[in-house]
Design a protein that fits this description.
Elements lengths: L2 E2 L2 H21 L5 E7 L3 H17 L2 E7 L5 H13 L5 E4 L9 H7 L11 H8 L8 H12 L8 E5 L6 H10 L3 E5 L6 H5 L4 E4 L17 E4 L3 E2 L5 E2 L4 H4 L5 E2 L7 H18 L1
Parallel strand pairs: 1-11, 2-3, 2-4, 5-6, 5-7, 7-8, 8-11
Antiparallel strand pairs: 9-10
The protein binds NADPH dihydro-nicotinamide-adenine-dinucleotide phosphate.
């Protein structure tokens, strides 16, 4: 049977490391503070925001919460962000996505001071990542690199295939794997013969957003499979983009859903909040 990559345990370890750093900073008189903004009351977003605040409390990061009504205008949101940019006591600013349709998400992301961009979505953060300069890295792909490293999985020299090219997962994932000296291929909905490409992968990262699409026919014997997808199935149970039961027997290591990539995203957000002190 494959090595099951335990995201719960690894994320707990990272949060404890962050907790120690936060305590050390406090001793030196520095507090870490994250501002979390939610517009509207989308239930899934409320759960994510709640979990982020809980993680802040655990590691000792102060969190400021802004719960704005659905009808908040873009100008009002931008003005709040501008105010938070100017507050030296606020180290990180997070705007929970998606935003209501009348607000331009790109404009909001661009408004955040890159030194407080703990989600790593600002064009300056993405540019810095591409050319190997210091900056914030998007939490989910950064978490996947930690999962691989802390599970003893070597990336250098490996054939790495990423399915999906979104700005928050697929593209930064590909750049991070490249930075770790993987040989990287990015695939998407227009890729011809996806199976032929994914079967070359030593490390396969799946971020498609389609429940259980990846079966063993897509996977080389002995590959490492990282499943980013999160869905609720017909029985309201969580599942990923990978058909776990089908794929697990053929691979050498695999992330489960839940308990794989999911918990890493928040752990890396906490890590980025502490990193904001260094970048500032
Ligand atoms: P997006 O919908 O933004 O991107 C999906 C990507 O998959 C696109 O690039 C798309 O290609 C590609 N794709 C879709 N269908 C196919 C197909 N049949 N064959 C090949 N490629 C295909 O999704 P995200 O990147 O935001 O998220 C992916 C999944 O990860 C979702 O399930 C999401 O819920 C989950 N997620 C989990 C997180 C976590 O913390 N665990 C964090 C973020 C996301 P094209 O570009 O051509 O359209």
């Amino acid at each position: 049977m494959p090595q099951v990559i335990d995201g719960k345990q690894i994320s707990a370890q990272i949060k404890d490391e962050v907790k120690e750093k936060v305590a050390r900073l406090k001793e030196q008189g520095t507090t870490v503070c994250l501002a979390v903004i939610q517009v509207g009351a989308d239930p899934a977003s409320s759960v994510y925001v709640g979990n982020k605040k809980k993680a802040c409390a655990y590691v000792g990061i102060e969190s400021l919460s802004y719960e704005l009504p659905e009808e908040t205008s873009q100008a009002e949101l931008l003005s709040l962000i501008d105010g938070l940019n100017k507050k030296p006591e606020v180290n990180g600013i997070l705007v929970q996505l998606p935003l209501p349709g009348h607000i331009d998400e790109d404009a909001v992301i661009r408004a955040i001071d890159p030194k407080k961009d703990v989600d790593g979505f600002h064009p300056q953060s993405v540019g810095a990542l591409c050319i190997g300069q210091p900056g914030f890295v998007s939490c989910t792909p950064a978490g996947i690199i930690e999962l691989l490293k802390r599970s003893g999985i070597e990336i250098a020299g490996k054939e790495c295939v990423v399915i999906g090219r979104s700005n928050i997962v697929g593209k930064p994932m590909a750049i991070l794997l490249l930075r770790e000296n993987g040989t990287v291929t990015v695939t998407h909905s227009r890729t011809r013969d996806l199976k032929e490409v994914t079967r070359r992968a030593d490390i396969l990262v799946v971020a498609i957003g389609r429940p259980k699409m990846i079966t063993k026919e897509y996977v080389k014997d002995g590959a490492v499979v990282i499943d980013v997808g999160i869905h609720r199935n017909e029985n309201n149970k969580l599942c990923g983009d990978v058909d776990y039961e089908d794929v697990a027997p053929v691979c050498s290591a695999i992330t489960p859903v839940p308990g794989g990539v999911g918990p890493m995203t928040i752990a890396m957000l906490m890590y980025n909040c502490v990193r904001s002190i260094e970048l500032q």
